[in-house]
Amino acid sequence: MKREYPPVWLGAALLALAILWRMLGAPVSGAEWADVKTPLWQARVLLPSRVGRVLTLWLPGQTDQGTDSLLEGEDPDGRQLVRQSMEDQPRVRVFLDAVVEMPLESYVCGVVAAEMPASYHEEALRAQAVAARTRALWQMENGGCKSHPEADICGDSGCCQGYASMTECREKWGDETELYRQRILNAAASTMDEHLTYEGQIITVMYHAMSGGKTEDVQAVFSEALPYLVSVESGGEESARGFYTDSFFAFEDMADRLNRQIPGLNTTAEEMRRGFSVAGYTDSGRVADVQVGERVISASRLRQALNLRSTWFSISSDGEGITFHQRGYGHGVGMSQVGANSMAAKGADYRDILQHYYPGTEVAGRE
Questions:
Q1: Contact, 327 vs 286, CB < 8 A?
Q2: What's the pTM?
Q3: Contact call for residues 197 and 172 (beta carbons, < 8 A)
Q4: How far is CA 164 from CA 59, 81, 181, 258, 297, in A?
Q5: DSSP letters spanning 53-88
Q6: 109 contacts 103 by C-beta, under 8 angstroms
Q7: Segment holding 125, helix H or strand E
Q8: Lowest mean pLDDT among 26-40, 201-215, 340-354
Q9: Contact call for residues 124 and 353 (beta carbons, < 8 A)
Q10: pLDDT for res 66
Q11: Distances (CA, A) of 46 to 29, 54, 118, 184, 315
Q12: Between the CA of residue 119 and those of 70, 115, 122, 177, 314, what are the distances in Å?
C-alpha cells in the first residue's frame, strides 16, 4: 500500500510558522510555558506590534511614520522617553529629583509610561495621554504643584502624576523596551494638544487603576462636587488580575498602624477586637466610614493608614485579626484604567472612553 506524505507546501508553511513563533519570542519548552506571565488579552494586543517588528527586520524601510511630526529620538540624558522636535509646544516644569523643564508632549509620554501598562490597548493609552495632558495643563494654570511650588507638577503619583524616565522604562520593560516605547509615543503623538474641557474650562482630572465595577463620586472621597466626576458603571473588569484581594491584619499590628497614621486615635488591640466595624457606605457601595471604638474615621484615611487597595471592602475576623476583602484598586474617582482597557477591547475609541468616565466633557485642542 502506497504511503501518502503531507504536501511540501504544508511542511514549508509549518516551518515558516515555527520560525516566526521563535522570532516573536514565544515559548517552546515546558519551562518557558510555565514562566509565561502575559494574560491572553495582553498577548492579543501585543501580537500586531511584534509581527510588525519582525516584518521591519525582514523588509527594511517599512517603518512607522506616525510620530515623525512630533518625535526625533531619545533624550540623551535618559530622563525623557523622547526628544521633541516642535519648538512651539508648551514647556512644563516637572519636579523629579530636581526641577526639570521639558516639552509638554515629552512629559505626557513619561506619565503614560508610569501610570498605565504599555501593553494596554492603544485606545486606552490614548485616553491616558489625554488625561495626563489635561492634568498638567490644569496645574500649569492653577498654581502648580502644592508639594513643590517651584514646579508645575511632580512625578509623585500620590501628589500629582507618576513619571517614568527612559532609564526606568528600560529597567521595567527589558527586551520589549522599543516596542512599548513606540506604543507610548504613538498614543501621545496621535492625541497631541488634546485635553478635556467642561463648559470651555480645563477640567480637574482624576483616574485610578481599577474601579471594581463602578466608579466613585468625587464628593464621597475629596468633599468637592464636580459634575464630570460622578459615579458611572465600569464593566469588563471582573477578569482582571487583582479584582478581588484580601489583606489580613493582626489586632495589635492594626492598632499600631492606625495610631501612627491618625494622630490622637489612641486605639488598642482590644478595641480593634471588640469595637471595629463599618459605619456607613457611599452610594456606589464603597465604605464611607468605619467605627473604631467611640470614634468614627473615614474609609479613605483607613485605606491610607493600612495601605489598602480600595475602600470597596467587607470585613471578617477569625479572633486573631481582621481581614479586608477588597474589590478594585485605587480611590475609584474618574477613569478606571482597567475599565478603559476593557472598553477599548470592545471597540470604543479614546473619545468614547473619556466621555464615559468624565460625562459632559469635550475633547478640545486639535483643529
A1: no
A2: 0.81
A3: no
A4: 32, 8, 11, 32, 34
A5: HHHHHHSTT----TTTTTB-S--TTSS-S--B--TT
A6: no
A7: helix 122-141
A8: 26-40
A9: yes
A10: 44
A11: 21, 13, 10, 13, 38
A12: 22, 12, 8, 11, 32
Confidence of residue 62 (pLDDT cuts 50, 70, 90): very low
With a cut of 80, say whether residue 64 has pLDDT above it.
no
Are the CB atoms for 336 and 215 separated by under 8 Å?
yes
Between CA 113 and CA 106 the distance in angstroms is 11
Determine the residue type at 8.
V
Classified as helix, coil or strand, 157 is coil
Q: Using the Cα atoms of residue 194, residue 199, residue 203 and residue 208 in order, give the sign of their dihedral.
A: negative
- How far apart are alpha carbons 34 and 251 in whole angstroms? 38
Measure the CA–CA gap between 263 and 316, rounded to whole angstroms. 26
User: Tell me, what amino acid is at 347?
Assistant: G
Percentage helix, strand, coil, to 5, in the chain?
40, 20, 40
Nearest to 217 by CA among 204, 208, 228, 202: 228
Nearest alpha carbon to residue 71 among 169, 183, 186: 186
CB 334 within 8 A of CB 196: no
- Report the SS3 class of residue 140: helix
Q: Which set of grid coordinates corresponds to residue 304? A: 491610607
CA 362 distance to own-chain centroid: 22
Low-confidence winner among 64-73, 133-142, 204-213, 355-364 (lowest mean pLDDT): 64-73
